[in-house]
Amino acid sequence: MVRGTALRRLTDSWRSTTARLILIYGVFFALWGGLVIGLIYWQAASYLGRVSNDLIGRQATYFSMLDERTRLHALDDYDTLETRRLNAWGVFDAQGRYLSGTITTLPPKLPINGSVALLPRGVSRNDNSNSSDDHGRVRAAAVRLQDGRILLITRDTSIVDRIGTIIIRALLWGLSLAVVPGLLGGLLLSRGPWRRVNAIREATLPIMQGNLASRLPVGRRGDELDMLAGIVNAMLDEIERLLGEVKGVCDNIAHDLRTPLTRLRARIYRLQQQFDEGSEEHAVLDACMIDTDALLGRFRALLRISELENQQRRVGFDHVDLAEVLREVHALYLPLAEDRGQQLQLELPALPTIHADRHLLLEAFSNLVANALKFTPPGGRVEIRARPAADGPWVDINDSGPGIPPDQRDAVIRRFYRTESSRSTPGSGLGLSIVNAIARLHGYTLEIAGSERGARLSLHCLEERVA
Amino acid sequence: MPRILVIEDDDVTAREIAAELTAHGMEVDRIADGGEGLVRAVDPRYDAITLDLMLPGLDGLSVVTQLRAQGVTTPVLMISALSDVDERVRGLRAGGDDYLTKPFAPDEMLARVEVLLRRHRPQVRQTILSVADLELDLVRHVARRADKELSLLPTEFKLLEFLMRHAGQVLTRTMIFETVWGFHFDPGTNLIDVHIGRLRRKIDTAGLVPLIRTARGSGYSLAQTD
């Protein structure tokens, strides 16, 4: 069928709405979390920095104001009371040479005015509490004592950075703990609706193939999906009822008119027999009979379609040699093609046997070939070509006729539809409808395409899926 | 004069069948009930039976089944409103000889009854069929017209055999299509004409008396010159 691919299969679960929402949520959550933690970090770091600066500045001023002995005691306390050896001090002469303390060199660019500066590379110390490489950055303040010497005190503030690291690490852990299970959970959650949508998709396949009696599954949850399925089912009920009415009217007309038409034909026939062959009356009545036969043929075709559509049984199904069927059809139509100066070619690769109704297949391919020959001008070419495929063989009927415009390809399968250009050609316009009905009965698809020059009608003999 | 038993409950159809058959020189008895039909059908004086499948009393399929069970071999033309191939297969399996779908053209029905009558006459198992100067060797698969060998395709051979077996009888396009090809759908009138046309060109060559005749607008027959 032409509309066969309208509903795409949901192969990728990331396509589902829930999964997509979860993904978007995850990204937003990560960004927001990062922003919040960054803000906290920035706030904490600047606060701690301010506190340290303040403290060091005060200490430097305090030490500078003490007398020599008290200062040395105080500085020793300053150093030793801080057990983690975060604090250090040094006294240098006016030229910056080391005199005493735990700091051995005076950082060259440090202003000697009590203001606090950040030394990213730390200072070198003579106590072996830490190796100098290990030194984190320190905050330092230097003041000039009254005798001209320089006092330098430092405090290791790398703890602030460490807090930052801890905060960032906490952020990453927190995010991964929240986002990863969140995404996984979302994926799992989305699988429920996804499975249901797939079930609905499966349920629509027979409906699209014309089985209007089947319905979408409705669960007991009464959620959006169930509501939608319910609405669609109600629509299907109405469509089925209307279609049934239309079809019933059509079939009844065809059926009811057939009997009087047959009687009419019988009367013409009997009347005709009373005249000599070759008389004018005989010829007129012959024309009447031909017209009546055409009418009867059309009704027969219409009722045949209806019969095929109503046929649920598959008693005629058996293993069928598709190649043999195509050879028979080819032999049947070859003389007709040759009489009209057309080429009818048969191209058969090795084909598997298929499970089908042989008589119906013969009828379908006969209709397809007759149709192709009808629309191919004299001298043209019709090609019956089979190609094997994994899911069942294809049979293409290519012709070199005018082709079928893409916008009419769906319509030609409809009952009585004939393209504008074919109005002058005799025929019931029901041949392709019969083919389509047979295709549906088999679960095959009929596809109409254009070939390089003309039309291509393909019947895909899909292997039955084991249900 | 052949005697035909018409078992048909619809009065209009029964009258139509009877009128057509009588007009062509046959004697017709009409029965409207299945059970009574079975009783009458056993009579060996009937040369053929037309049997409606939907009957009050005993249905048509049971009638033909019981008839065959009793060893009655009178040919039966089954007439049914069901055109399905499955129905046809069922009818033929039960013992019917031919199957016709309602509504039918009287000439089609007549042609089928005539073929059944011919079939019923005791036939010697022939290996060579001959009509006028046309000869068909069924064993060696050779066809000759006026002692000249004809080259026929397998389908043409089968077609000619069918025409020759029923020489002098009208064979409708549907009957030809069903018997020669074994297909049961509507191929359109043109197709059989084309096949007959081909055969005609091979058999009725210039200078010879044409044997294949177009008959009664609906079919063909092979002339019988005797």
Task: Pick out its properties.
heterodimer, A: 467 residues, alpha+beta, Beta-Lactamase, Helix Hairpins, Heat Shock Protein 90, five-stranded antiparallel β-sheet, five-stranded mixed β-sheet, 8 helices, 12 strands, 52% helix, B: 226 residues, alpha/beta, Rossmann fold, Arc Repressor Mutant, subunit A, 2 domains, five-stranded parallel β-sheet, four-stranded antiparallel β-sheet, elongated
Describe the structure concisely for a colleague:
The complex is a heterodimer of chains A (467) and B (226). In chain A, 52% of the residues lie in helices and 15% in strands.
Overview of the structural elements:
The complex is a heterodimer of chains A (467) and B (226). Chain A is an alpha+beta fold and 467 residues long. Among the domains of chain A are: 66-157, Beta-Lactamase, CATH 3.30.450; 224-310, Signal transduction histidine kinase, dimerisation/phosphotransfer (DHp) domain (Helix Hairpins), CATH 1.10.287; 317-460, Heat Shock Protein 90 (2-Layer Sandwich). Chain A has 8 helices and 12 strands. Chain A has helices spanning 17-65, 68-81, 158-208, 224-273, 280-310, 322-339, 358-374, 431-442; strands at residues 87-92, 98-101, 116-119, 138-144, 150-156, 317-320, 343-347, 354-357, 381-387, 394-399, 445-451, 454-460. In chain A, the strands form 3 sheets. A 5-stranded antiparallel beta sheet of chain A has the order 2-1-5-4-3, covered by helices on one side. The longest helix of chain A is centred in the middle third of the chain and has 51 residues, at 158-208. The radius of gyration of chain A is 47 Å and the shape is rod-shaped. The model of chain A is unreliable at 1-10 (pLDDT under 50). Chain B has 226 residues and is an alpha/beta fold. Chain B folds into 2 domains: 3-120, Response regulator (Rossmann fold, 3-Layer(aba) Sandwich); 128-222, Orthogonal Bundle (Arc Repressor Mutant, subunit A). In chain B, 41% of the residues lie in helices and 22% in strands. Chain B contains 8 helices and 12 strands. Chain B has helices at residues 11-23, 34-41, 60-69, 85-94, 106-120, 154-165, 173-181, 189-203, and strands at residues 3-7, 27-31, 48-52, 76-80, 98-101, 128-131, 134-137, 142-145, 148-150, 171-172, 212-215, 219-222. In chain B, strands 2-1-3-4-5 form a 5-stranded parallel beta sheet, sandwiched between helices. In chain B, strand 1 (3-7), helix 1 and strand 2 (27-31) form a beta-alpha-beta unit. The longest helix of chain B is centred in the middle third of the chain and has 15 residues, at 106-120. The radius of gyration of chain B is 18 Å and the shape is elongated. The A-B interface holds A 258-259, 261-263, 265-266, 269-270, 272, 286, 289-290, 293, 297, 300-301, 303-304, 307, 311, 313, 315-316, 328, 331-333, 335-336, 339, 359-360, 362-363, 366, 370 and B 12, 16, 23, 83-86, 103-107, 155, 181, 183-191, 194-195, 197-198, 216-217.
